[in-house]
Design goal:
Blueprint: E1 16-19, H1 26-37, H2 41-55, E2 61-66, E3 72-80, H3 86-97, E4 107-115, H4 124-134, E5 140-146, H5 151-158, E6 162-168, E7 177-183
Parallel strand pairs: 4-5
Antiparallel strand pairs: 1-2, 2-3, 3-4, 5-7, 6-7
Helix pairs in contact: 1-2
The structure holds coenzyme A.
Coenzyme A binds near residues 36 and 154.
Length: about 190
C-alpha cells in the first residue's frame, strides 16, 4: 500500500465519496445499512421515516460512497445536535453524571455510518466520516455506538473520538451503547498505514 500522510482519503480508485441526496436514495442506503448492521424489514420501515425526518433538520448533511456504476456502497449522515431531540434526551443524564454534558452543545452528531460488507476495511468509512465532519461548522462531534469492541469503535477511536459515557440503555435496544466525542477536525489516518 502506498504511503498516505495527512488527511488524504485512502478510498479505492473505483469508489467516489461525495454529496449524497439521501432523501432520494434512502431505500438504497437502508439496504446497505441492513447488510452492514443488520435490520429487520420492520426496522427498515421505521428507519425510513426517521431518516426523512432528520433530513428536514437545518444543517443535516449526507455523503455517499458510490461505484463507477453509481451503486451506493456506503453512506454517512449527521446533523447539528439539539438537546430537544430524542437521542439527546436519552444520553444527557449519562453524560451529565460524568461531567460531559456540555458535549451536547455546539456538536455535530453522526447519526449513521455504514459500509457494505464487501467494501469494508478499504478506508471508505474513514473517508465518509472525515469528509462529513470536515465541512461541519461545529467545533466537535458526538455519536453513539454499540458498547463493545467492533470495527466501528476501533475506527472512531483512531479518529480521536473518546468515550463520554458507556452502558447507555436506549429504549427498545437490546444492547447498551457508548457515546463518544471528538474535537474537530478529526485526526488523520495513523502512521502505521504508510
Ligand atoms: C464501521 C464501518 C462503517 C467502518 O467502515 P470501513 O470502510 O470498513 O472502515 P475503514 O476501512 O475506513 O477503517 C477501518 C478501521 O476500522 C477499524 N477496524 C476495522 N476492523 C476492526 C476490528 N476488527 N476491530 C477494531 N477496529 C477495527 C480500524 O480502526 C480500521 O482502521 P485501521 O485499518 O487504520 O486499523 C464498517 O465496518 C461498517 O459498516 N460496520 C457495520 C455497521 C456499523 O457498525 N456502523 C457503525 C454504527 S455506530
Amino acid at each position: 500500500m502506498s504511503s498516505n500522510p495527512g488527511h488524504t482519503p485512502r478510498t479505492p480508485d473505483e469508489i467516489t465519496v461525495g454529496p449524497l441526496d439521501l432523501a432520494a436514495r434512502v431505500d438504497e442506503a437502508l439496504a446497505v445499512q441492513a447488510l452492514a448492521f443488520g435490520l429487520t424489514d420492520e426496522e427498515i420501515d421505521v428507519r425510513h421515516h426517521i431518516v426523512l425526518r432528520h433530513l428536514g433538520v437545518p444543517g443535516a448533511r449526507a455523503l455517499g460512497a458510490t461505484t463507477a456504476e453509481n451503486r451506493l456502497v456506503g453512506f454517512v449522515y449527521g446533523l447539528p445536535n439539539d438537546r430537544a431531540h430524542w437521542w439527546s434526551t436519552v444520553v444527557q443524564p449519562y453524560l451529565r453524571r460524568l461531567g460531559n454534558d456540555e458535549w451536547l452543545d455546539d456538536s455535530f452528531v453522526i447519526t449513521e455510518l455504514h459500509v457494505h460488507p464487501r467494501h469494508q476495511n478499504r478506508g471508505i468509512g474513514r473517508a465518509l466520516i472525515t469528509g462529513l465532519t470536515d465541512a461541519a461548522p461545529q467545533p466537535r462531534s458526538i455519536l453513539s455506538a454499540i458498547d463493545r469492541d467492533s470495527p466501528a469503535r476501533g475506527l472512531y477511536a483512531s479518529l480521536g473520538y473518546r468515550d463520554l459515557a458507556r452502558q447507555i440503555a436506549f429504549p427498545g435496544a437490546p444492547l447498551p451503547y457508548a457515546v463518544m466525542g471528538a474535537t474537530l477536525p478529526l485526526r488523520g489516518p495513523r502512521s502505521h498505514r504508510a
